[in-house]
Write a structure and sequence with these properties.
The chain is about 45% helix and about 10% strand. The radius of gyration is 25 Å and the shape is elongated. The chain has a 4-stranded antiparallel sheet with strand order 4-3-6-5, with helices on both faces. The protein has a 3-stranded antiparallel sheet with strand order 2-1-7. The C terminus is likely disordered.
Length: about 425
């Protein structure tokens, strides 16, 4: 049951936060067709209605703007699909959903009403009025009750994934092997500290910069007196290494030309105005034989990455075994489905451009994750978090991961999501 582009599409455009957690809610109730009746297939005896699959695909068409046969057939061809393969993929996603439900029940996983309330409240904060919130639910084809049920299930699935985590520390051999890769990949990485000013306080920022350059003011003293980033003030302005990181691009650009102990000019990001100081530059040794040869801060990142990989592998092994053991039956595709088109009219493209790989890549990196200290997150590999539905930008990543249950879902790769404080935060 391979996850591909079709399962990422329906929540990507207009369903936003109200649909962020709800694959079934997005699809089985919204964008309803006239209905064909019948059963698409079964999963351990649980029936998946043909109309459930049909309505999801019709939702995809709506999101793509491919309501007419010509545009739909063209899109299918360009992405190497047929109506039958689309149907099978959507069915498989619902089949996996049923297996996740069974896993949740087998492990006795439950969630409290307060946990559900917290998620709903976070999403509702995106809407100024109850009328706008209701309109979003209506657009997603959901009621607040059905949306609540979706959130409950996704929270359970997150806990199911969490149950595969291990407290066992990675081996020294694994850590060293990973460290060798880090050293090579991050040769030339730079560590920095900064002073953050409000975006409307350029005059003060320039005055402080002039005093720093003249030696009239010490950098650490300036951090404590002027910086508006409380998180890094306690660390004398330190924001860590630029690799791996979730630094804003403008910040990275400002740091890039600096040598150790050099100051930048005024650097503006969405968080304010920065004065950046390069505090260290990492030069990788020709051969890494000890963890002591890489920065200490990277050790915890390596350990976390290895634990995350182990968790993902354990989860995926369980899911593969559950799928293999399950009694999954998909019935023949009936005639007359609204998304069925004659693909002989739409020949396959002559090149690979614009095909599934390209659309997959464009979609994979579009979810946004929330950083802890105020800079865009761009490197976390994790399942959809319990906070994933809290912002409109998180919709696609959260829907994709939470609904499908993939271990790598909710990835914030390539996303830019702001948090509270304004300092670049380390990414796991």
């Amino acid at each position: 049951m391979k996850k591909t582009y079709i399962m990422k599409t329906v929540c990507a455009v207009s369903l936003t936060a109200a649909c962020a957690w709800g694959l079934a809610g997005c699809s089985s109730e919204g964008n309803a067709s006239a209905g064909t009746g019948g059963v698409a297939g079964t999963v351990n005896g649980v029936e998946i209605a043909e109309d459930t699959v049909t309505n999801y695909i019709q939702g995809v068409r709506e999101q793509l703007g491919a309501d007419d046969e010509e545009s739909w057939g063209t899109w299918l061809s360009q992405n190497e699909y047929t109506p039958a393969s689309v149907r099978e993929e959507v069915f498989n996603s619902y089949a996996q959903r049923e297996l996740l439900k069974e896993g949740v029940e087998e492990k006795g996983i439950t969630v409290e009403s307060s946990e559900i309330d917290e998620q709903i409240d976070k999403v509702k904060q995106n809407y100024d009025t109850d009328e706008k919130w209701q309109a979003a639910l209506d657009q997603a084809g959901m009621t607040e009750e059905s949306y609540r049920a979706e959130i409950e299930q996704k929270l359970k699935e997150n806990k199911l994934y969490a149950s595969f985590a291990s407290d066992e520390d990675p081996s020294d051999a694994d850590m060293l092997q990973y460290a060798q890769m880090y050293a090579t990949a991050y040769d030339g990485s730079k560590r920095s500290s900064h002073i953050l000013f409000n975006s409307d306080d350029e005059a003060t920022a320039q005055e402080v910069l002039d005093k720093l350059n003249s030696g009239e003011l010490d950098f650490v003293d300036a951090v404590k007196e002027y910086s508006q980033d409380p998180g890094s003030v306690e660390l004398d302005g330190d924001v860590g290494w630029n690799n791996p990181s979730n630094l804003a691009q403008e910040y990275k650009d400002g740091l890039e030309p600096l040598e150790k102990d050099q100051l930048s000019g005024l650097v503006t990001t969405q968080f304010g105005i920065h004065i950046i100081k390069c505090t260290d530059v990492y030069t990788a040794p020709e051969e890494v034989t000890s963890l002591d040869q890489i920065p200490e801060e990277w050790i915890s990142v390596i350990a976390s990455s290895l634990k995350s990989t182990r968790q993902q592998e354990a989860y995926q092994q369980w899911l593969d075994e559950a799928t293999e053991a399950a009694d999954i039956k998909i019935n023949d595709m009936p005639q007359g489905l609204p998304y069925d088109v004659d693909m002989s009219k739409y020949p396959a493209p002559s090149t690979d451009e614009g095909t599934d790989g390209a659309t997959d890549g464009a979609t994979d990196g579009s979810s946004e994750g929330e950083a802890t200290d105020g800079q865009p997150a761009d490197g976390s590999d994790a399942p959809a978090s319990e906070d994933a539905a809290a912002t409109d930008g998180a919709a696609e990543g959260a829907a994709d991961g939470a609904a499908e249950g993939d271990a790598d879902a909710g990835s914030t790769e390539g996303g830019d999501a702001a948090a509270a404080d304004g300092q670049p935060a380390e990414a796991a």
